[in-house]
Amino acid sequence: MADINAWVWWLIGAAALGIPLVITAMPEFGMLSAGAVAGAVTAGLGGGMVTQVLVFAAVSVALIVVVRPIATRHRTQRPVLATGIEALKGKQAVVVERVDGSGGRIKLAGEIWSARPLDASESYEPGRQVDVVDIEGATAIVV
C-alpha cells in the first residue's frame, strides 16, 4: 500500500465517488469526484498532503456553491419551447364545421381537429376564429 503514490489514491477516490453519482444521479457526488481529481493533480505536482486535502475541499465546496444552484434552477424550469399539444394551447383556429355541445371540426395548425366548446351552451359557425384553451385526447376545447 505504501508503494502507491498519493495521486493514485485520489483517482481511486474520484472513481469511488463517481459510482454513487451514476447510481443515485446526485450531482454532489460528481462535484466531490472533481475535487478528488484536483487533489490527484496536486499530488502529482508534488503538493503535500495538507495541500492536497485543502485543494480537494476548496474545489468541492466551490463547485457545490457555484454549480449546484445553477443545476437546481435548470432542473426546475419548464422548457421554454412548448411542443406537442402544449404548443397548440392558446393558438387560434378556424371553425370548419359548426362547433357546439355535440362537437364539430376546426382547422388548427394546418390540420382538421374535432372540437367542442368550453361552454356546452355556446356554438360557433364555420369561418369563425376561435381560441384553443385545452386539448383532451384528440379533441380541441375552444372559446
Structure described in brief:
By secondary structure, the protein is of the alpha+beta class. It has 4 helices and 5 strands.
Q: What form results from the Cα inertia axes?
A: rod-shaped
Oligomer: single chain
End-to-end separation in angstroms reads: 75 Å
Number of strand elements: 5
Structural class: alpha+beta
> How many individual domains?
2
Mean pLDDT over the full residue set = 91
Low-confidence stretches: none
Beta-strand percentage range: 15-25%
Could you explain how this protein is built, in words?
This protein is α+β, with helices and mostly antiparallel strands. Helices cover 48% and strands 24% of the residues. It contains 4 helices and 5 strands, in the order ααααβββββ. Strands 1-2-3-5-4 form a 5-stranded mixed barrel. A hairpin with a 2-residue loop joins strand 2 and strand 3. Helix 1 runs antiparallel to helix 2 and helix 2 runs antiparallel to helix 3. The longest helix has 28 residues. The chain starts with 5 loop residues before the first helix and ends with a strand.
SSE blueprint:
Layout: H1 6-24, H2 27-44, H3 49-76, H4 85-88, E1 92-100, E2 103-108, E3 111-117, E4 129-136, E5 139-142
Parallel strand pairs: 3-5
Antiparallel strand pairs: 1-2, 1-4, 2-3, 4-5
Helix pairs in contact: 1-2, 2-3
Which features does this protein show?
4 helices; OB fold (Dihydrolipoamide Acetyltransferase, E2P); alpha+beta; 2 domains; 143 residues; 48% helix
